[in-house]
Amino acid sequence: MKFSTHEKRMRHPLAKLIPQILWETLFVNELPNYLIPLMQEHDEHLLNQLIDEARPKRPYFTTDMLRMWLVIVLSHPELTTESLQQIADRIGMTDQMLFHAAVLWGNKNYFKYLMKQYSKSSLKYMITENNYHLFIQSAQRGDLYIFNKISQILRPKLQQMIEAKEFSAFKLAAENGHLSILKFLAEKAPEKLQQMILADNFFALRRSVEKGHLSVLKFLVEKASEKQQEMYAVYHLLFRIAAAVGHLSILQFFAEKSKDNLQEMISSGNYSAFKVAAAAGHLSVLQFLTEKAPDELPEMIKANNYFAFRHAAINGYLPVVQYLAEIAPEKLQEMIAAQNYASFRCAAADGRLSVIKYLSENAHDILQDMIEADNYGVIRGALQREKETHLINYLLSIAHAFAFADQHYNEYFVQVSLFVTNKLSELQLQKRTVEQENPYAVFDITNPDESKLLFYILRNLIRQNDPARRDDILFLLNIPSVKALAHTEVTPHKSNELLRLALSLENESAAEILMGIPAVREMAVQNNFYRLEQQSGLDLQALAQDRESAMTALTQGEQQRLKKGINYYKPMLKQASVQFIMEELYAMLAQLYEQNPASITILNQDHATTIVLPLHWEELQNLHLGEPVYHEALKAYYQHKAHSAWRYLSKPNPWMHEHASYVYVNPYNTQEKWSTFEEYQSLISMLYLAVLDKTMPCLDNHTFESRLEHFINELAFIGRAHNWDTTRSIIAGNGDVITQEFDDLEGDRPSCFSGVKRRLFQSVLDHPFFMILTEDIIKQEIREFVRQHFKDSIDDKNRNAIKTAWEKGILLEERTNEDWAALNAIDICQEKLDAFIRSLKNKYDKEQLVFFIPYIKNKFALNPDKEFQRAHLLKFGYLHLEELFESNCQKKEKNQSELQGLNQFGLFAPGEPLSTLEHSTPRWQNE
User: Fold this and answer.
1) CB atoms within 10 A of CB 263
2) Smallest Cα–Cα separation from 138: which of 111, 166, 109?
């Protein structure tokens, strides 16, 4: 068992029992797995058995025996000396080994006991063995009592012991911080002290600095040679070592010790101390050096082509990278670019995700160069290491990196496909969240880099040439910012890249969808449908002329639900052409308007003048109306259904609001704007045919006239959908205060892409082929069903208990079993849910409903592991079911109180009926 850090080892209940010196020297930073059962067992009989079983499946070395005996005694402090001897015998240890183990253990009492078990001659022999190895080991272990005892046994040979193995006792005592041992040796051999300090190229000094033993260092420096010039060179070395290992206190000691020489130590080796401290991540050392040599900072940072920054990044030390960027912001791009963007490339190669994120986010201007460095070395290296999923996903989230991977799709198929699938799922979730919070909100991506990434994901979907990806392509193109890029040069010198790729791959489905985007289609026309570069069998001009052959704006699920209508009216569409039908619809709307035009009445003293408003914008301008009258005229247009529908289909539409979203703008005249209707012309045409088709009977007592009127109203609403985004409070006829949406009567703000389809699906009233079931309809059915269920289930008998359980969630109090019993008692049972689904089957087309049954069941599924999903009342809490907790008497009192409060501000007269307010259709009634 290995541990990546000392802290992790110290958190392990067994490994932490081993002293650090033994962990490093005897165990070599690893606890063999076969020793763990020995440390866990407390029965001596079983312990003996385990010793036999734990013997390594190889020759049994002295080191193995020492480890086994030591882990047992360290984990079993209650063992007697007799037991320890028995364990040693069981392991097969000699007296020499056991004595050695006792020295390593450092237990004074056991060492005393063992000393008595051997003769003096035996002890001398064991200590002399292997060039006084036990003497050296006792100095390394640092127990002064044991060290003294061993020294006394061979007192005549003390000088030889001190000199053994190039003064190893002195060196190892210094390395491990045993100052008392060093003083003992210095006292016993003062004439050899300089040799001890100089031994092995100042080993004692170097290792005391590396290990951070400041007291030992001070002792050695005090005793060292007085040859200043010689020691200054050593101080430079030790200063760099201290910086490399991050021992700030030692650096401070040298700074105080050699004040006059400090600047030279800092600049030594081309600012080596600064460089190695950065490479090792020692922020406090960098701050110390910066403080001591502020004038040298530019040179320290620049040394060896920004070595400090590069190696801090490569080694993953984000705080150091941030610090260097903070103190030299003007050099950040140079630091990143050094050695062909080595900091970025090598950090990625070592999986330093946090550093990669920081560099990407703070050097946006050169991010493309960073990605392209070394022939896209960063992305190539990451994609070849499949386990680095977090790094791969982050890099692929950078548009330029994904573009490279997409161009090598066959090579990186697995990673790219997985990323695309996950990204699309993430986007779908974001879209659902946005729409749950506001059903009329438009899901869009505001970050240009993210939009660019989605463009390349769209390119990848087209490259896959898989019919199953059609809905994903539509989904991305329904995101306004992505759609706006469809024809542009996202990749330099590659305009209309998506369409041209679809053509080259003969991806007819993608080509059809893209040709439904006016800007894409216009550019294709301008370039003669790319005939010169085509090698595929697709006839793009034919697609442009025959776009009604497929409902390109519809997903596969939507096409399935419209299957009957599409199959029935498709031949008529082809025969008459979409263009002709749209022209007929446009002319019909103009005729309806002229038969019943909008008008305004002007009062001039006692005389009233009625002005009939013309159909066209230019004619309106020719009336030269004054500002107040002109403003009223515009309002009249906005309220006229036929004219609003006509404007929705106009290109351009001069009545468009100057800040309208989801519209097309003429790049040569930005005053000209129009809606996105062109993309839905085939669908609108088919629905118009259905509206006019008198061979199809009207259902539910509707008429052909009401069917046409409803269709026009829906087109009018699509043209002004976002003019209904504001709300107001009104008093209903029963005295209730309700919130109502209303038309702001400003310039046209048409619907977003998804909203267009939603409205069109419900634009044909009671046609046998177009009873189109949508998710919005299902949601409304569920809302009504749930509210009615709880309205029937909550009464005076259970109201207080349910209200108490509900309010505990608001107050963040823990619910009791009685609370849950009260909530679950009114859950919707399976029988009632089944009855609800059967009622929907009777009401709607079964073939359409089958798509929504899993959705319905999931809506009612409970999850005991999630607080808000343990009871239906909590799961559907967003329907404001708390209103049902009040009795009729309480509701009446509350309504009267609210009414009095609003009347204080003069918002409306008491008891004013709903019918007296401005007639307008709230959007929620149509949605």
Assistant:
1) 13
2) 111
Question: To which residue do tokens 């320890």 refer?
Answer: 84
Amino acid residing at 10: M
Q: Report which of 361, 211, 585 is spatially closest to residue 220, judged by C-alpha positions.
A: 211
Q: Which two tokens stand for residue 172?
A: 């190892």
**Angle, vertex CA 199, rays to CA 194 and CA 202, nearest 5:** 90
Closest C-alpha among 73, 126, 119, 120 to residue 99: 126
Distance CA 257, CA 904 (A): 81
d(CA 382, CA 315): 16
Please count the other Cβ atoms lying within 10 Å of the Cβ belonging to residue 314: 21
CB of 342 closer than 8 Å to CB of 308: no
**Taking a C-beta distance cutoff of 8 angstroms, is the pair 683, 553 a contact?**
yes
Cα(371)–Cα(407) distance, integer angstroms: 14
- 634, 627 in Cβ contact below 8 A? no
Average pLDDT, consecutive stretches of 10 residues, N- to C-terminus, the chain (927 residues): 90 94 91 90 75 68 91 92 91 93 94 93 94 95 94 94 96 96 96 94 95 96 73 88 96 91 93 97 97 95 96 96 96 95 92 94 92 88 82 94 90 91 95 82 90 97 93 93 94 91 88 89 85 59 48 65 82 91 96 96 84 96 93 96 98 95 87 91 93 82 87 95 82 69 92 78 79 78 92 91 89 90 94 92 76 90 89 87 70 46 34 33 31
DSSP string, 574-642: HHH-HHHHHHHHHHHHHHHHHHS--EEEEEETTEEEEEEPPSSHHHHHHT---HHHHHHHHHHHHH-HH
For tokens 């920004």, what's the residue? 306
Task: Count CB-CB contacts under 10 A for residue 155.
Answer: 9
Q: Whole-angstrom Cα distance, residue 366 to residue 341?
A: 10
DSSP string, 759-797: HHHT-STT-TT-----HHHHHHHHHHHHHHHHHHH--TT
Q: Which residues contact 313 (CB under 8 A, 6 or more apart)?
A: 321, 343, 344, 346, 347, 352, 355, 359
pTM of the predicted model as reported, rounded to 2 decimal places: 0.61
Contact status, residue 762 vs residue 927, Cβ threshold 8 Å: no
Its sign, for the CA torsion 512, 516, 520, 524, is positive
In angstroms, how far is the first alpha carbon of the chain from the final one?
64
Q: Which helix (H) or strand (E) holds 674?
A: strand 669-674
Residue 227 has what pLDDT? Answer: 60
> Which of 505, 414, 415, 501 lies closest to 455 in space, CA to CA?
501
Give Cβ neighbours of residue 620 (< 8 Å, ≥ 6 apart).
613, 614, 633
Half-sphere exposure of 389 (CA within 13 A, CB side): 6
Contact 739, 787 (CB under 8 A): no
The answer to whether residues 315 and 283 touch, using CB atoms and an 8 Å cutoff, is no
Question: Under DSSP, is residue 742 helix (H, G, I), strand (E, B) or coil?
Answer: strand
User: Cα(598)–Cα(635) distance, rounded to whole angstroms?
Assistant: 10
C-alpha to C-alpha distance for 224 and 276, rounded to whole angstroms = 26
According to the model, what pLDDT value does residue 228 have? 54
Give the pair of three-digit tokens for residue 855: 């959705």
The helix/strand/coil state of 553 is: coil
Euclidean distance between CA atoms 263 and 296, whole angstroms: 9
| Secondary structure of 852-915 as H, E, C letters | CHHHHHHHHCCCCCCHHHCCHHHHCHHHCHHHHHCCHHHHHHHHHHHHHHHHCCCCCCCCCCHH
